[in-house]
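Contributing: when you submit paired examples, paste them exactly as shown. First protein:
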Amino acid sequence: MDYERLRAFRNERNPFPRRLGIYVEELRPGYARAVKTVTEEDLNPLQVTHGGGYYTLADTACGSGMAAYGTMAVTINSAFSFLKSAQAGERLTAEARELPGGRSVCVLEVRVTGGEGELFATGTFTFRRLDKPIAF
């Protein structure tokens, strides 16, 4: 598996995260790291990052870790907690790691942190692995 090519494919062909400025920096089977710098357009009426920004960053990281197995997977469930608010200009990193377990149903834990390592959000995402290879 050419992980660098897959990473480039995911960054180029994933329009919603791309529109939000989310970029996958690293991936391998069961692991991925994605980043995003918060912009003014990411803020809610309270002038802090909208929860959808954290969630999409986390889901993108988890989905990329699943994609690194070379087969398609879909999110079937998630639990997500918002712990701290990021301001415009802050760089967020989502690191996803697969938990030991199933073959067709897989769970990844994700942590969204800031530049100083502070924890902004955490969650688990459950995926159904499909028997369809990713064509890229």
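Second protein:
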Amino acid sequence: MDLVKKHDYDSYLAGLLCPKESRDAYFAIKSFNVEIAMIKDNTHNNLMAGRLRFQWWRDLINEVYNGVEGGKVSSLSKSPIAQAISSSVSQHDLSQRWFERSLDARQRDLNSEQPETLDMLEDYAEQGHSSIQYLILESLGVRDEASEYATSHIGVCSGLTTILRAFPYHAAQVSH
């Protein structure tokens, strides 16, 4: 909760309104989102360091869903966010593909390629932001086509809004 409170206060406030049985999953999902959203900045645009961090998250998500191979030491034991995700996956049967789609979208940020069309921007928002919304929907026990359709639009709007709100920050990064 503290990570979300510090870096995504609006989501923190919304999470307080979640039903008690879904609140831990909500904050696990939002913490995951905060972590992967900050990789580019935390690695100071170092492409290799960013790729390694994304691979760590991919391995971790794979471990949550498939276990540990060959008796290796578990990464889960060291990461409170990973433990919370693991618990949430077990409790709410969250879909692995939404975590993976979100990772794919955020990893494309490392290349600093800007979407060339509005459709490309909307696709990025769908993959990166709607995927997180789908996970939250699943944590609430909602799994139907109409809800997913609405959530897709909410995620795209949320993603576009986030991009617009971050414009001054990103513009300042380019000028340095």
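If you have annotations for the second protein, write them as plain sentences, like these:
DSSP finds ten helices and no strands in the chain.
The two ends are 32 Å apart (CA to CA).
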